[in-house]
Amino acid sequence: MIDKDVDLRSDTVTSPTAEMREAMARAMVGDDVYGEDPTVKQLEQEGAACVGKEEALFLPSGTMGNLVAVLSHTGRGDAVLLDSESHIFYYEAGGASVLGGVQFWPLEGLHEGGGAVEMIKKGVRPPDQHFAPVRLLCLENTHNRLGGVVMPPGAMEEVCSAARHLGLVVHLDGARIFNAAAALQLPATDFTRHCDSVMFCLSKGLGAPVGSLLAGTTSFIARARRNRKLLGGGMRQAGVLAAAGLLALEHRHALQEDHRRARELAREIAALPGLDVDPFPPPTNMIIVHTAGANCSPGEFCAFLAEQGIKAIPFGENRVRMVTHRDISDEDIGRAINGVKAWSLHFQSQGSRGGDRP
Ligand code: TLP
């Protein structure tokens, strides 16, 4: 029998568990646009409670959740401050600019090094006819492109209170907020209480096939519900999806296992010549492998691993990302370690050829 690939490209690749599939089949449903789906309502209530907000809204994706949040906090012509490496700015197709007419104002290094408050103060320029008024600050925790790093609650509080002082509202892209909570062994509410809204994903490490929740005050969620409809995201008998989401929420307490596996794999990779892992140890479930020292492109590295049945993803210049998740077992980590070691042996035997490359 051929083993299934060990898929470390993302924590989005999980398949629904047998328990989820059963719950989906049994789910009580109704038309959620009429507010009549009891399973969606239950998920929204439980989800809001998990992040300490009044209400929550079920959406098909994290991208739509962030977009709805930005549309619901801003008007056309407003500016939004956010990290230049944030998912909303980097990966979401400029949705809020295209559909909401907002100007993104990216701040370089917002999530690094503690200079965030100063950056935000500079970003909010004085009222002037030349400037788009800044209304919103978006944060991301854990931070994807930085390698799953956690912004601790103290830093969030400092940044959020500075933003509030300047008249901004704060949205948190908390796609992986429960990874942050698991890493520091704190309740998620410690991270979310200073933010006006938070989006989190059920379909990443938590393992649901589809879905995200956007949470905030009752009046914010009323605006968000309308914007979700505007975008075509009002779903009908969505209880079949929410049923899996409810089970996914329970899994938030088990994420430390993914983090332990990420550390284990990272330790082995970092010990190999030519490869670096940064941040090290990985703070949550993401491992960023730097291949520059090996004179091997991320694409070549991933192609070699793919031949060993290990899937990883090129992640920018000289970087490869590997992500642990619900469908990755200890045995899979062992296979990934063997795959990387095989690459190392191969690389060493090809060392002189590698050195010849431009
Ligand atoms: N991230 C995906 C890719 O889009 C890069 C991944 O594989 O990591 N916020 C953050 C921080 C995310 O990492 C993602 C997905 C989203 C939002 C969007 O969620 P979806 O994929 O549900 O639209």
Describe the structure.
With 358 residues, the protein is α/β, with parallel strands linked by helices. The chain has helices at residues 18-26, 38-50, 62-73, 87-91, 95-100, 116-123, 153-165, 177-184, 189-192, 218-230, 239-250, 255-270, 298-307, 330-349, 351-356, and strands at residues 6-7, 55-59, 79-83, 103-107, 134-140, 169-173, 197-201, 212-216, 276-277, 286-290, 310-311, 313-314, 319-323. It folds into 2 domains: 6-12 and 254-349, Alpha-Beta Complex (Aspartate Aminotransferase, domain 1), CATH 3.90.1150.10; 16-252, 3-Layer(aba) Sandwich (Aspartate Aminotransferase, domain 2). The protein is 43% helix and 15% strand. The strands form 3 sheets. It has a 7-stranded mixed β-sheet, with helices on both faces. It has a 4-stranded antiparallel β-sheet with strand order 9-10-13-12. The chain has a two-stranded parallel sheet with strand order 1-11. The structure holds ligand TLP. Ligand TLP is lined by residues 10, 12, 61-63, 66, 87, 91, 140, 144, 173, 175, 201, 203, 212.
Rg, alpha carbons: 21 Å
Low-confidence stretches: 352-358
Number of structurally distinct domains: 2
Question: Architecture of the largest domain, according to CATH?
Answer: 3-Layer(aba) Sandwich
Overall mean confidence score, pLDDT: 95
Shape: globular
CATH topology of the largest domain: Aspartate Aminotransferase, domain 2
Structural class estimated from helices and strands: alpha/beta
Would you count the extended β strands for me?
A: 13
Number of helices: 15
